[in-house]
Amino acid sequence: MSPDSFELYDLKVEVIAGEKPMVCGHQAGDFFLVEGENLVFDSTRRFSMYALSALLPLLPAKQRPLDRNDWMLSDSLIACPDPNCGARFRITRIGKRVFRHGECTVVPITPGEKGDLQ
Ligand SMILES: [Zn+2]
């Protein structure tokens, strides 16, 4: 591990059926992966931009280590933003990936901004 390395979780975001019918064209089992800053659509060719807009704010938090008491750690089922749609989206951590600060930004590490290392 490099002295400027850090880890992020890879995520899988999968469509699962809820209690009501899905009305947005989602298909149960459709998914995409989150690898660092990238969304990876290996097999799912279409994904609702409205559903994506509801998911995007949560993904960077789910990629990072969280306090065991943080609700963001326990809550992994997200509803479609259409109130008439039964689709749910499950966010699962599927692995870890190592990154280096210097490969992600040109901004130097500032002493005193090392999060929990202070
Ligand atoms: Zn929907």
Cofactors, ions and other ligands in the entry: zinc ion
Mean of all residue-level pLDDT scores: 92
Share of helix among residues? 10-25%
What is the total domain count?
1
What can you tell me about this protein's structure?
- This protein has helices at 49-55, 59-63, 71-74, 101-104, and strands at 5-16, 31-35, 38-40, 77-79, 88-100.
- The two termini are 20 Å apart.
- The mean pLDDT is 92.
- The protein is elongated and about 50 Å long.
- Strands 3-2-1-5-4 form a 5-stranded antiparallel sheet.
- The chain has one domain (5-101).
- By secondary structure, it is α+β, with helices and mostly antiparallel strands.
- Zinc ion is lined by residues 22, 24, 26, 51, 80, 82, 85, 87.
Key terms:
4 helices, 118 residues, single chain, binds zinc ion, alpha+beta, five-stranded antiparallel β-sheet
Short overview:
With 118 residues, this protein is of the alpha+beta class. Helix content is 17%, strand content 31%. Strands 3-2-1-5-4 form a five-stranded antiparallel β-sheet.
Protein topology:
Blueprint: E1 5-16, E2 31-35, E3 38-40, H1 49-55, H2 59-63, H3 71-74, E4 77-79, E5 88-100, H4 101-104
Antiparallel strand pairs: 1-2, 1-5, 2-3, 4-5
Bound molecules: zinc ion.
